[in-house]
Amino acid sequence: MGGMAAQIPIKNDPVAHEKALDKVRSDKLREVTDGFDGTWVAHPGLVATAKEVFDREMPTPNQISRQRDDVQSTAADLTKFEPRSPITEVGLRMNINITLQYMGAWIAGVGCVPIFNLMEDAATAEISRAQIWHWIHSPKGILEDGRKVTIELFRTLLPQELEAVHQEIGEVRWAAGKYQEAAVMFDQLTAADDFAEFLTLPAYEVIP
Question: Please, are residues 37 and 62 in contact by the beta-carbon 8 Å criterion?
Answer without folding.
Answer: yes
